[in-house]
């Protein structure tokens, strides 16, 4: 069995793969190291051969988790880092080490899936958009605040609107309360950002590209972009390519 862990800003996502056929045996998400270890202890994960991790958390948090997993399960733990090239994809940053590792792995996972030009959007705490051409060259991308971050910022002055549910509005007519105005306004900002990325991709490649959505807000965005593919495990796909069996 192989344990895969994606330590994001908000949640630690994990899954266990059967080493033979790479099927997902179990999966979950936790807020921190203690909750993750408790979930693993309570789950029939079998005998773990190794673990591969991607993390955007602090070095202290990341290495604490690595040490805990090594001690508890007596297995090697591999930590992914951004690289210049991986699985046919060329990193487009001037300094490849500065591209967030989770973002890099999502890009690699997307291209490995489509083998053609891709617009890769990760709808999370931050929203990232990355462009990869048909030869696997990452052209760069954009980063914007995610919808919860936008709403939290507005919540400083409008406490009642601070924690609106992150889902798709039934309507985009003007809001008739502060909560409606904040909810619909921030959703429109996110959808406008995504729509602009799509138009830029069309300018580059016409209609010869794939649009892939991942991250916690992918389903909400996907309701407005029916042509997009929602692939929840893009980061894990890239992680597996970084550390093949």
TrEMBL record:
Catalytic activity of the protein: (R)-pantothenate + ATP = (R)-4'-phosphopantothenate + ADP + H(+)
Name of the top EC class for this enzyme: transferase
Residues at which ATP binds: 6-13, 125
SUPFAM superfamilies: Actin-like ATPase domain
Cofactor binding remark: A monovalent cation. Ammonium or potassium.
Metabolic or biological pathway: Cofactor biosynthesis; coenzyme A biosynthesis; CoA from (R)-pantothenate: step 1/5
Keyword annotations from UniProtKB, A to Z: ATP-binding, Coenzyme A biosynthesis, Cytoplasm, Kinase, Metal-binding, Nucleotide-binding, Potassium, Transferase
Compartment(s) of residence: Cytoplasm
GO cellular component: cytoplasm
Cofactor: K(+); NH4(+)
Gene Ontology biological process terms, A to Z: coenzyme A biosynthetic process
Coiled-coil features, chain-numbered ranges: none
Function recorded in the entry: Catalyzes the phosphorylation of pantothenate (Pan), the first step in CoA biosynthesis.
Subunit structure: Homodimer.
This protein's name: Type III pantothenate kinase
Provenance organism: Pseudomonas pohangensis
């Amino acid at each position: 069995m192989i344990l895969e862990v994606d330590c994001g800003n908000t949640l630690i996502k994990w899954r266990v793969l059967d080493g033979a056929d790479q099927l997902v045996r179990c999966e979950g998400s936790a807020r921190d190291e203690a909750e993750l270890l408790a979930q693993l202890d309570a789950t029939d994960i079998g005998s773990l051969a190794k673990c591969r991790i991607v993390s955007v958390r602090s070095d202290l948090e990341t290495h604490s988790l690595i040490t805990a997993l090594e001690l508890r399960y007596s297995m090697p733990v591999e930590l992914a880092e951004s690289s210049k090239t991986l699985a046919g994809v060329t990193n487009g940053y001037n300094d490849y080490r500065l591209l967030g590792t989770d973002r890099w792995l999502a890009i690699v996972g997307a291209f490995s899936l489509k083998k053609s030009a891709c617009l890769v959007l990760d709808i999370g705490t931050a929203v990232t958009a990355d462009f990869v051409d048909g030869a696997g060259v990452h052209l760069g991308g954009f980063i914007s605040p995610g919808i919860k971050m936008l709403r939290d910022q507005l919540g400083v002055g409008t406490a009642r609107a601070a924690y609106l549910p992150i889902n798709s509005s039934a309507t985009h007519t003007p809001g008739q309360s502060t909560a409606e105005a904040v909810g619909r306004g921030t959703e429109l900002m996110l959808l406008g950002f995504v729509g602009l990325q799509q138009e830029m991709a069309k300018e580059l490649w016409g209609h010869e590209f794939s649009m892939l959505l991942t991250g916690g807000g992918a389903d909400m965005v996907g309701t407005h972009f029916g042509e997009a593919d929602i692939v929840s495990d893009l980061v894990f796909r890239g992680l597996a390519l970084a550390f093949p069996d």
